[in-house]
């Protein structure tokens, strides 16, 4: 009887496992990717703890929303200015050595930031200057890190690999802010900065254990990624999405402080809700984007972010604020992961670093502009009008992206009919 029951249960269980594992955990079968994922989660955790301390420190040093949003702007603006050069660098040298060097430098900068905070010398100019330096190092690091992912798994698992990295990021986002807020409240900002420095050391050591990531030798000299219309559409979509969705993150300390009249713990709660929403949507991104098509799926994520921004604009309790933040997290990771995976799979291998550099420039450029302009508009007109305007803009973007997919399909059918 037991054997008969086991024989009856085993086939559907095996089929279910075969369905779930390739989508969620399949890329972890590959040792190199597994090390990258472990290293990334550790680094993301330290980074989110650092960001909580940096943003809240800025909020305590100045009452202006523009100053708080400047912390995000200075981290991402160097990515806009330097990513194209960093992409060429990632295509021409050993990416492992580049990643180890950038993470060692990041550790040194965050140790300096923690030291200044310990002795009470971390004023606003020093905070912003060191934040900008972290942004420069992040710009050099980004394309090499992004281009390393498809080297570790087969092409048909790239989407799942990107989603796993994004899910790990959002698990860290879920845990990191709460832990960072606890560290901030109990031990001060310096402890959060030192913890982030330790995470950079750990990820550097883990990357060093990987084999050399030699570049793909090619004679291609021009940035052919710009010649592909589908890549240009992806760059444009992520640019505008980042611009209109970024205030959901950069202005979140203002929501916690002014709308909810909270503390650093309130801010941590909102960030955790943002990360929780992102982590919940992560496992279904690969399947949903394939079934719906990336344009339709991205249109839905734009609508999710729009709804979250509306809730944040009217939030009066932690529950309503957390619900809005969770919706923004769902929209954020859905759009970013889907477009990132599409670029990874579409770009030619010999110029993948440059293609991802264009992608990062568009994504981060939109985020930097959205953070700065969102902070400026909130300073002049108030928080709620800015969040409402961003929500409306994301609805318009969703309609455009949805119609773009329909027109592309109509063109395809017309061409096949001829």
Structural description of this entry:
By secondary structure, the protein is mostly helical. It has one domain: Growth Hormone, Chain: A. It has helices at residues 2-24, 31-61, 65-90, 95-118, 124-152, 158-187, 189-208, 229-245, 247-250, 252-259, 264-292, 294-314, 318-346, 352-381, 383-417. Helix 11 packs across helix 13. The radius of gyration is 21 Å and the shape is globular.
Order of helices and strands: HHHHHHHHHHHHHHH
Mean pLDDT: 78
Helix percentage range: over 70%
Biggest pleated-sheet summary: none
Overall number of structural domains: 1
| Low-pLDDT segments, ≥5 res | 1-23, 218-223, 406-418
CATH superfamily grouping: MFS general substrate transporter like domains
Write down the overall geometry.
globular
> Based on the structure, what is the oligomeric state of the protein chains?
single chain
Radius of gyration, CA atoms, in whole angstroms: 21 Å
End-to-end CA span: 62 Å
CATH topology name: Growth Hormone, Chain: A
* Tally of individual helices: 15
The appropriate CATH architecture is Up-down Bundle
The number of E-state strands comes to 0
Percentage of residues in strands: under 5%
* Helical/strand content category: mainly alpha
CATH class: Mainly Alpha
Compact description:
This protein is mainly α and 418 residues long. It is 85% helix and 0% strand.
